[in-house]
Amino acid sequence: ELKVEQNPLFLSMQEGKNYTIYCNYSTTSDRLYWYRQDPGKSLESLFVLLSNGAVKQEGRLMASLDTKARLSTLHITAAVHDLSATYFCAVGGSQGNLIFGKGTKLSVKP
Amino acid sequence: DSGVTQTPKHLITATGQRVTLRCSPRSGDLSVYWYQQSLDQGLQFLIQYYNGEERAKGNILERFSAQQFPDLHSELNLSSLELGDSALYFCASSLDRGEQYFGPGTRLTVT
Fold first, then answer.
1. Is B43 on the interface with A (CB under 8 A)?
2. Whose C-alpha in A25, A76, B81, B88 is 20 to 30 A from the C-alpha of B66?
């Protein structure tokens, strides 16, 4: 059974600091996704990672994938308040469905 | 805006009742997925339809059922509702097994 673990589950950061969220998964998958969710809102797609060594960047966020280690990271550079949200990683299951981690609730404080 | 629509936005109902949630996928997408998000269970996959046929089942209770119609919209039926069914229900769509786009969700409150 495919399992996805994220850590940390809660992250309180100061503006301007850097941090990394980790996502481990238990069995081989060819797709890994990062989503952002604001309170009470839907999930917004941030990154799609399809191959070993893939790295994608958008603004202050950078995601990478190591399929051999079954690990993805979401790195936050020089955090700003607008990045406060819950971030989910999700791994593609064999049927096309997504298996989600528990999410990392990020709070960026001035 | 993902292009996926869901109705209603909010639903409040009593235990034992039955409700229907509706989802219209993005134009051109053939796959529809239903997910449940609750505080204790997190985001869980319920069921997937592809071009009208059921393709995959996740942690969907027997009291729940879904279908996808010829125009590709989908409905999720929840019956004999219990307090624990209170959650956000998301629909997502994709072309096939590709990137999924999520709708705004339906917040169900069972009292």
1. yes
2. A25
B103 and A93 within 8 Å at the Cβ level: the answer is: no
CA distance B77 to A43: 22
Residue ranges of chain A whose pLDDT lies below 70: none
According to the model, what pLDDT value does residue B2 have? 86
Decide if A11 contacts A19 (C-beta within 8 A).
Answer: yes
Cis previous bond, A8, omega within 30: yes
The pLDDT of residue B97 is above 80? no
What is each CA distance from B84 to A6, A58, B71, in whole angstroms? Answer: 25, 38, 32
**Out of B44, B45, B101, closest to residue A45 by CB:** B101
Whether the CB of A102 is below 8 Å from some CB of chain B: the reply is: yes
